[in-house]
Amino acid sequence: MHKTLCLALVAWLIAFAARADEGMWTYHDFPTGLVQQKYGVQITPAWLDKVRLSTVRLSNCTASFVSGEGLILTNHHCAASCLAQNSSKDQSLLENGYLARKREQELRCPTQVADVLVGMEDVTAHVAQATANLDEKAANEARKRTLTQLEQSCEEASRKSGSGPLQCESVDLYKGGQYYLYKYKRYDDVRLVFAPEDGIAAFGGDPDNFQFPRWCLDMSLLRAYDASGKPARTPMHFAIDRAGPKAGDLVFVSGHPGSTERLLTVSELLFARDVQLPQWLLRASELRGRYIQFSKASTEAARITQDNLSSLENAIKVNRKLLDALHDDALLERKRKEEATLRKGDTAHDPWSDIERVEQAERNIALPYTFLERGAGFNSQLFRYARTLARGAEERAKPNTDRLREFRDSALPRVEQQLKAGVPVYPDLEQVTLSFSLERLREWLGPDHPIVRKLLSNDSPDTLAARTIAGSKLADPKVRVQLWQGGKDALGAAHDPMIELAQAVDAEARAIRKRYEDEVEAPLQAAEEKIAKVRFAALGTSVYPDATFTLRLNFGTVQGWTENGTPVQPFTHLDKLYDRATGQAPFAVPQRWQQEKSRLDPNTPFNFATNNDIVGGNSGSPLIDTRGRIVGLMFDGNIHSISGGYWFDTEKNRAIAVHPAIMTTALEKVYGAKELVKELGVK
């Protein structure tokens, strides 16, 4: 590597370290020296182990153990699906909340899992050896086979060890710079213990989402159970400090940030700006309108749409702000300068130019890939069940290393759990989503596209959706399990129209997937690995990798920011909740909180801001102090944090947490959950 490149990258690293507390650090490469230098705090291996083993990954969020009997603290919105799945026509747990006063009243969350990271193994050398001297396509296939083999060997070894089976997952870090095997202890019996009303958990609703000041009790309590049906024994768990932190205090977030794209090249960012985000936003915004119109038909329609609509509104706001970030010329120019510095390195040829060519190829196949393989043309839970059953029958007949990665042996228990789950399927809502997606399939691919002609020569989107939904029996989990176990013969004998629809488009969907893997994924992976080697040669693990929904640790401080010349204070308090209430949703304070108002201390801290570096997936993460105690519960960021998917705004990017004082006050004085407070051992 040229000396000038080394000096430039060192200067870049110094500038990086001088910025705010940016970084989603892995536990195996956490910068303890940087924390010691900047804050005078020593982070020991024992501290890291305790925090890691007390942190939980849910299927959609982060959480943490908060008692020795498997009690789990996370956000209300992380438990929303469980609440919806346990609701009925006459009782909405999302709207009314839930409290199990006895263990036998704790409700099973049918599709939830709780994973604890118990081991990490560097397998970079294995992957490098398997892909050496291969062309791009062959290397891509060899990489997938090798990762599947490593996962399989890991799980087989854990079963033979006598210490209990592990869930082993491969992790790609630094865009191919590192590969790890992460080993998890999994609890697949997770039950709902407590959740407040949606009116207080999400006070302010979509208007307040990604805003601050906030007044949200976005918390819930779950419990992990072991294989014998007893509450899990979890000696590694967090204590909760009711007093919480002060402004300026050093705090840490342990969690699973879902995805960042901070290592993307400029051409990849431009593809997201010009193609991916605009197309997604067009479809999602229209679907949002369909949901809203449907929800106004009746109280029941509003209830069954609530979870889907809230999730979609959140995603629209996120993607809209990401698009805004990519139109920020100053930030893109900074990215160009960083990239220009890296491009001065010694490489056999220019991988950035390779990526530019790949992005052009991706533009050519983006639409059919999105609608056929990614499922944008078939937005239906019944269709997703049908595709899983149809593909599962095909893939399980193959050797483990030859299957699609989502059907490898290590993934099958999770697939089976979701098929067995008694999740309600609402035909009227299915009609809305499937007919809409079929309309967009016809619009975006064109009426003469072979798949469109195949499906809609004798049907309209409405009639095809109505016929397949009405004739399908896949809403019944017993039927799904029977078909899964029966394989191809059972699927053929079922004559289920939704399965027939999935099978009718599968050949074309697989073909566009293979084309994407060969023309986009393989050359992109090869080019990114070349760039990773240049970056790694200069910086190694002194910088952090992009988020991958794997466990990370971030440090920061409690602080506000300045918005348009006005300081934003870091804490909110209970009294302003009532001042801000209008009596109408989404600014209506639930009746229970109105009744207890006189008994509550108006100065109780409610929500607060920190400069910790988080993104989606960190929801439910414990905010902890230097002693390893929970001093907050992460649930959101301010509007400036959304651009954190691409880069960190040191001046304005802020994370938002629920204060432990309001959580314990709510449990004690509003909900009368004294046994839970006792189990939590709140000081």
Structure explained in plain terms:
With 683 residues, the protein is of the alpha+beta class. Helix content is 49%, strand content 14%. The protein is built from 24 helices and 19 strands. Helix 10 packs parallel to helix 13, helix 13 packs antiparallel against helix 20 and helix 14 (381-395) packs across helix 20 (497-539). It starts with a helix and ends with a helix.
Keywords:
alpha+beta, about 675 residues, Thrombin, subunit H, seven-stranded antiparallel beta sheet, globular, single chain, 24 helices
How do the helices and strands line up, and which of them pair or pack?
Elements (H helix, E strand, L loop, with lengths): L2 H16 L13 H8 L5 H10 E4 L3 E4 L5 E4 L5 H6 L7 H4 L1 E2 L7 E2 L5 E9 L1 H8 L4 H26 L5 E7 L4 E10 L1 E7 L2 H4 L3 H4 L11 E6 L24 E6 L10 H30 L3 H28 L2 H14 L8 H23 L7 H15 L16 H9 L6 H19 L4 H7 L4 H11 L5 H18 L2 H43 L12 E6 L3 E3 L2 E3 L2 E3 H7 L10 H5 L9 E6 L11 E3 L5 E8 L17 E4 L1 H11 L3 H7 L3
Antiparallel strand pairs: 1-2, 1-6, 2-3, 3-10, 4-9, 5-9, 6-8, 7-8, 9-10, 11-12, 11-17, 13-14, 15-16, 16-19, 17-18, 18-19
Helix pairs in contact: 6-7, 7-20, 10-11, 10-13, 10-16, 13-20, 14-19, 14-20, 16-18
